[in-house]
Amino acid sequence: MIAIDSGSIEVRWTLIRNSNFSDRKKYQNWCRDRLKDASGLPDVEILYSPEGKPFLRGSSLAFSLSHSQSWTAFAFVPVSRQREGISLGIDVEDRMRKVDALRIAQRFFHPSEVEVLTQMKCQPEELKDEFFRIWTRKESVVKCQGSALARELSQLPPSDLLLESRRFTDHHWMSAAVRLPIGHQEMGQQLRFRELVYLP
After folding, report:
1. Which of 37, 50, 125, 178 is the most exposed place for a label (fewest CB within 10 A)?
2. Where are the alpha helices (DSSP H) in the chain?
C-alpha cells in the first residue's frame, strides 16, 4: 500500500495479481471485501454520482479501483470527519501494450506533452514509457474528478490536484490523483507518498 502522510490524511493502495481471480465473481467479491474492510460497513452498496464517480451509500469513504491485464489496484482514504470531501482516483497500465504512442498523443494530448514525446521519437522505448506515465496521470485525474476522459486528455492536470506516478514493476505504471476538501488546500504542501509495497 501507499500512504500520503500529513499527520491526519493517509491514502492506502493495495495491488493484487489478476491471476488470483478465476472468474468475475471472485474479482467482485474481492473488491467488496476491500470496501467493507475500508469502510467498516457490514455490507456495501455502490452508487454513482451524476458524473459517474462511484461512492458508498452511508459512508464518506473515498476510493478508486483500476486494473490492467495483470494487476488490480484498490485505493482508499480511511474514513473520518476530517477527511470528508476528499476525492481520489488511481490508474494502472501495462506499458508493454502495443500502442502508437506519438500518434495518440498528437491527437489527444496537450501540446506541451506532445512536444516532450516528439523530442523522444528517436528513443522508442523511452517515448512509450513516458506516454504511459502521462496516460496514467490523466486517467487518475478523470477518476478523481468524475470527468470525461476525452476532455481531460487534452488538458494539463489541474493545479489543485496532488499527483504521484511510479513504476511498480518493469512493465507497469501507476498514478494517483487526490483532491483535498475546500478550505484544506494548504495541507497539500505537506503530503508525501511513502514507499509502495505490492502483493505478489
Report:
1. 50
2. 24-39, 101-108, 111-118, 124-145, 149-153
